[in-house]
Amino acid sequence: MIQESDNMQELKVHFYPELFLQRRIWILNILRKESITRVLDVGCGEGQLLSVLCQPAPWLTPPPSSVLTPIEPPTPNDVIPPSPVYNDDDIPNLHMTEVHGLDVSSEDLAFAVDAIALPKEEIETIESPGRRWYNRGVQRWEELSAKVWKGGLEVVNEEFVDMECIVAMEVIEHLTEDIFPAFAPMLLGVYHPKFFLVTTPSYTFNARFTPPDAPKSVRRGFPDPTGRTDRIFRHNDHKFEWTKEEFVAWCDETAKEWGYDLERTSIGRPLDLDPWGRDEELEGATSVVAFRRREEVDSKKREERGRARIQELAFNSQPHEALASHKHLANSASMKPASLEKIGDCVKVKMEEFREAFMRVEEIWFEPDVATMCGGWIELLVRAVEESPHLNLKRDVDGVLKKHSNMWSIELIGGVANPSHLWPAEGDTSSEFIPVDWTPGEGPHEGWEESDADGSTGVEGDVSANTSDDDGEDESDGGTSRWKKGSGWNTLSVEEVNERTVSDWARSGDWGASGSGAGGWGDVPHSANSSTAGWDGDESDDTTG
């Protein structure tokens, strides 16, 4: 029941995922769906989106038939697509080749420069046989050019002409009255990208923050700084916030003038229903639109009209300054695979080394030796497993065939299911573990006295000798922890392997922090949980704009 006094209080509105993440997810999903490789982020701020775009894809797009001939053409009736299809997710990975960021704030751009920086080189270490690392960086298979620029959008930058996609995320509402007229002519005219993605706060939604009969004084926020309206905005730097109708009018007019089709919607629905039932009327907190260039319109004429309009506005602004420029080089083995026989042998050796009878396809892929031997094409790994006499590709889980390849596993044929114990389990006093040449009363430990336990029993430098039993197993090495349980081979079923693999991946610093679903994969496409899905931190998460 709603109390009368409640109309004097601002309502609490919750979003999940948080609104800034929903905006980024909307952007990234379109980039993936349209297989976009070249992006300009206008108003990039601290570079949160740039950071995501600079992450390498885990593998290349499918190889041409000259590299890997399909076994048979796929048909609509296939329960599971024939090899070598692997990149079969509804929303595929990003494969960026060129990324630019532009902003006017030097303070924000200092962070953006870090966002596109080259990764630190990993220190080469000599690994023990069977030792596995779950925090390896992802190898890069495609070269990426990344640049950060300082300057205003009203200035022409020739490097941005014919950009594949331009993103303006929460930018347009910050433009001053003199700069706003250059927004569409520059971005859709001079640069004429194939896609133009825009997000902006919906003023219509702001009514959701107060009861219908609440006085304006209840709404906390920022009065329109231009004085054109009596509206209360969400941010102190917003020069305007459009209603649904105003946003629709601008989108339609802009698309018509510059020869674009559009898809318009809103995102950011509150978790809780509005007590007054206004959810459908108010829609989402953020208005979004995706412009798609009409190819029948001559882009050269678009560009000429855009340049003429910018010249008429007669801006006296400084040229853009390149603050950082980096080439992220691809692995030298990219697109240079070994033979399928050698790839299969490498997988066999790795599984024997790890004492695993079953491994997920993607788990073995992130072993650098395996991925490098495949030249970055995971389809070659799948085909090599299919053709190897030592391996078996398991496309089912608990007898149920899985169409999505991220659930497939590899079986090592002849892997020992129940090997002899290499040492006794805790509490096991069986005589089977007594050495045949042991003589009672003899040996290096027979003279041990309780008083000897006062000091360390380890050699010099051993810091583990005096730790308590409560410390538990060291989970920093997921591969070796299973060795402590008295079995040289992992004997888990395929279902248990999948569950165990999810747990291992969740511990990884590179993947586990990617989002709310990072605790497990299940049937979720792999790219939905990587750093290329947009779940990283954002300094803007304290605003609703």
Automatic annotation (TrEMBL):
The keyword Transferase applies. GO terms for cellular component: cytoplasm; nucleus. GO terms for molecular function: metal ion binding; RNA binding; small RNA 2'-O-methyltransferase activity. Coiled coil: none annotated. It comes from the Eukaryota. Its EC number is 2.1.1.386. Residues 512-522 have a biased composition (Gly residues). GO terms for biological process: RNA methylation; siRNA processing. Residues 423-545 are annotated as: Disordered. The keyword Cytoplasm does not apply. It catalyses: small RNA 3'-end nucleotide + S-adenosyl-L-methionine = small RNA 3'-end 2'-O-methylnucleotide + S-adenosyl-L-homocysteine + H(+). Its cofactor is Mg(2+). InterPro entries: Hen1, SAM-dependent_MTases_sf. Belongs to the methyltransferase superfamily. HEN1 family. This is Small RNA 2'-O-methyltransferase. It comes from Galerina marginata (strain CBS 339.88).
